[in-house]
Amino acid sequence: MNVTKRSYDAVIVGAGGAGLRAALQLAEAGLNIAVLSKVFPTRSHTVAAQGGVAASLGNSDEDHWHWHMYDTVKGSDWLGDQDSIEYMCRMAPEVVYELEHFGMPFTRTEDGRIYQRPFGGHMSNFGEKPVRRACAAADRTGHAMLHTLYQRNVRANTRFFVEWMALDLVRGPEGEVLGVTAIEMETGEVSVFQAKATLFATGGSGRMYYASTNAFINTGDGLGMAARAGLPIQDMEFFQFHPTGVYGAGILITEGVRGEGGILRNKDGERFMERYAPNAKDLASRDVVSRAMATEIKEGRGCGPEKDHLLLDLSHLDPDVIIRRLPGIREISIRFAGADPVREPIPVVPTAHYQMGGIPTLYSGRVVAPKNGDPDAVVPGFYAAGECACASVHGGNRLGCNSLLDLLVFGRSAGDSMIEDIGKMPGALPDLPRDAAEGSLARLDRLESQKDGESVHEVQAAMRRTMQEHCGVFRFPEMLAKGVAEIEAVAERVSRTGIGDHSRVFNTARIEALEVENLIEAAKATMMGAANREESRGAQARADFPERDDTNWLKHSLWYREGNRIDYRPVHLKPLTVETVALKKRVY
Amino acid sequence: MPTMQFKIYRYDPDRDERPRMQDISVEIDAADRKLLDVLVKLKAKDDSIGYRRSCREGVCGSDAMNINGKNGLACLTEVKDLKQPVVLRPLPGLPVIRDLIVDMTQFFKQYHSIRPYLINDEPPPERERLQSPEDREELDGLYECILCACCSTSCPSFWWNPDKYVGPAGLLQAYRFLCDTRDQATSERLDDLDDPYRLFRCHSIMNCVDACPKELNPMAAIGKIKAMMLARTV
Question: In chain A, is it the N or the C terminus that has fewer CB atoms within a 10 Å radius of its CB?
């Protein structure tokens, strides 16, 4: 196959919040960049975020970035890197104001400022009481943000390659990153994008689970590419499950429903949260509620013929409260659960929502991979931001509204780092290795010539069932051991997938097969990480190791595809300017 | 399990001389509530059926198509309401790349042409620009557009002049910036639209309102632009 070579100062893979924020930085600096996205930018999953973006603006309550930092460290169950967390929380007001200046249609307070609402885990004065910190555009904050960033990129004349899917990283002899290979979906043609700086902003991998709030496109493409290129993936065992996704459909039902008085019930109609969290009950933190729900289902108290979900009951609320304060949720419930919450409970299930782990980076967005005893050795030319990256600001558990913030802060910092590093590389681009596209072409050839291949649809379904059953909210040793074996068997099947469609033109069967090749790497990293980490911290809840173990496990895990092995990296406990948030038991 | 019958527009320029309609059926169950759920099943059966999809909850705008003669999003279309055989065609009026996938270049070109970004050359304040809740409310019903193209591709004026008429989606966004109190380019924006084609090809036939899966009203926004245009001439 003919491979076209294209050269840029920088190439960005992914055009969601992080990719667009980085692209803006580079385009406005006048650099020659290419932004690759497998969907039109406003179709990216950032569009689905609802609640808000966290920043200590103090528009409604007194607030301080240091309090935000404390909450984020505590929320992370101390696994987050405190330098990155300080950086993010300090930068938050600035990046939010910037977004407003770009035209973001934030909801307003009476005095015309950005409207802020309370959100789980965000407190004032180091954990004292809830604070209004989530800056919101109604319940469509992600949509408003993604469109605003895209619009600003239109203004900056950013060069987009829409419906181009990146295939593999290209690395040089010293391991430096020299660009990516990519396929143009409309023509099926393969190109090598050569660049002095390559940023991954490819989003999460939530589609590895059967029940997921994630879009179809969230297939861990960046993780797959990094893993195949020999780079480690960090802390993938920490996968956030949101307690209330619509059963079957996976669409998110916000925590605000329980805030308005909604109650979770099991098949006996029992308000089971009273047994698990006598004080906070249904409003306990996300991981606590999800664990309680998983236990109810496992012990046979789930609802429906399969006893595999629970009910979110709002029927005791004044219908006016539902119609006025939760109109979007009512619409979702009617549309996707066939239940009007005014009369009927909403069937819900803990639903895979967010990947805390990812490609390890520093707060500058530079990707690291331990080398010669340096745990923070930078991979030259390679950057990552957003959900695909692990900076690590979310550690073991992400707070709501910190994800949109992550995209803005680290999209921008990665863009700035790229500008700085490109500035130190005057002159021509380094030569590409002769075999730069060989791995990608071999994968495409394999897919084309596979005889009696397995159905992509079936293999992906097997992966999602395995992850759901063996590596869910609550993790049991025997289930994990079986899960490791099963996911390896699924991986074997992924290497034998076949497609019936061999057209060159917009071949979505081929794209889906390539996506599964990426997703399986993320799934292996998640399953292996969960089986390996013998403690409970944040979203990793081991039945056999119910406590957090700071003596042995206050460290990041790094999964390598080669040999399916795990290594470790220390947590950055030292912030940039303030004192370390000292370890203590996480109680809300 | 009941079987559902489909007639699907198929065209692959790599293989087909001309488009054809494919008859295909699939067994569905109670979990298949939306047309997109069934399309996923159809694709498992015949992986060559081409369509776009992403969020599957009606916020990304990927899976717009012509469903039994009406434009809509597959992910928001109720299976139980569909008359069979379900006839699926690409959005009308745009070139077909393949099957249900259309080339949206012209649609986005029109969107880009209205300068869909805030224009305000004053140095921004240290904090946010202020905007009253009432002024902000003007943006409701406008900013929520998901750029799915259901409206523009149901508009005969856009079919006839896709290169000259901005179309309902682009005009909805034009008004979104015209009525944003933070935007300073009102007069330039109106100048740009003051053209027999760009704005005035709208004949208020309401196809756009009928087609919008987000229940937005491009025609009302176009009417408001026309009113602004008129107001500045008197």
Answer: N
